[in-house]
Amino acid sequence: MPIRYVYYDNEIIDFGSGVNSTIRMLPYLSQSSQGTSIDKDGSLMYLSRKVSKSTVAQLYIMNDPFNKYPGLELVHKEPDQVVEILKMQNAIPQEEDLINYRGTRGAIKIWEAKNIPEDIKVNEEFTQRDPYGDDWKFGMLDELEFRE
Q: Which residue from 48, 58, 42, 54 is spatially nearest to 19, judged by alpha carbons?
């Protein structure tokens, strides 16, 4: 089945047609009795249409490939220890943050909202302190609109 997007070497490749999903290629680290080996393109992460459009996928997994979040600034990054060791050995590219080694391993990243566009709405529901209080309704955030 043809997939429309591939994220590879910090770049999004759009084939122009296919299923509106994204494949994220990851290095794969394996260990055996013969030693350790790294396959630069040995693992794939499938991102469905909805997941690939999520903020987590856009920022954390693909480093904002469409520049949709210029108002967010990466203020903290704590790399995974295995990833850092591989970078020091030049076994993976310096810009790589994710690998597949006994599961997906990646950095802890924290962003801060700066230069927020004026058309972003403020929703008081996001600042509620007691989600289980009397005024909390199931699904109350489902119909929110974020831009005017």
A: 48
**How many beta carbons lie within 10 A of that of residue 61, not counting itself?**
21
Residue-wise pLDDT tens digits, 112-133: 888 777 777 766 666 665 556 6
At residue 136, does pLDDT exceed 60?
no
Give the separation between CA 19 and CA 9, rounded to whole angstroms: 21
Q: Which helix (H) or strand (E) holds 75?
A: strand 72-78
Helix/strand/coil for 89:
coil
Which residues are paired to 3 by β-bridges?
A: 19
Q: pTM value?
A: 0.72
Distance (Å, whole) CA 107 – CA 110: 10
Question: Cα separation of 28 and 103, whole Å?
Answer: 10
> What's the pLDDT score for residue 81?
93
